[in-house]
UniProtKB/TrEMBL annotation:
Record-linked Pfam families: CbiG_C
GO biological process: cobalamin biosynthetic process
This protein's name: CobE/GbiG C-terminal domain-containing protein
PANTHER family: COBALT-PRECORRIN-5A HYDROLASE (PTHR37477:SF1)
Species in which this protein is naturally found: Pseudomonas knackmussii (strain DSM 6978 / CCUG 54928 / LMG 23759 / B13)
Domain CobE/GbiG C-terminal residue range list: 3-127
UniProt lineage: Bacteria, Pseudomonadati, Pseudomonadota, Gammaproteobacteria, Pseudomonadales
Domain of life: Bacteria
Length: 134
């Protein structure tokens, strides 16, 4: 199985807050941190040092996806945000990026195993997909 954490954050959100939220999400979903294959977010978050630091701490790749890769998942989001759409071009970052990257890595359909959760400055969602056969 491929497990991906999708993350969104406000400007200058720190890695500590992102890590605490990620770990809370994994606990809630009953999943172990070692199952994570990658972190995903919007390319609009490319300058967010907290995301890059989190990926470094966890030794996981961080994929920053363009809005065109996130838009097809709008119908699968638990909620949409006009603010996220304005800032990133996508109506949601955490859920859409988790789904998009999990599907790309698995070469097949993914599903949300935990919808978006929030902290003061960040969002996190978890998506899982079976490993593709191709």
């Amino acid at each position: 199985m491929i497990l991906v954490a999708g993350l969104g954050c406000r400007k200058d959100c720190g890695a500590d807050e992102l890590l605490a939220l990620l770990r809370a999400c994994l606990r809630e979903a009953g999943l172990d941190e070692t199952l994570l294959k990658a972190l995903a977010s919007s390319e609009a978050k490319a300058l967010e040092g907290g995301l890059r630091e989190l990926a470094r701490q966890l030794r996981l790749p961080l994929e920053l996806l363009p809005a065109e890769r996130l838009l097809p998942y709008e119908s699968q989001l638990s909620s949409t945000s006009a603010l996220a759409r304005q800032a990133t071009g996508s109506p949601g970052v955490a859920e859409a990026s988790a789904l998009a990257l999990a599907e790309a890595l698995a070469e097949g359909p993914a599903r949300l195993v935990l919808t978006k959760r929030r902290s003061a400055n960040a969002t996190c969602a978890l998506a899982m997909a079976p490993v593709g056969l191709g």
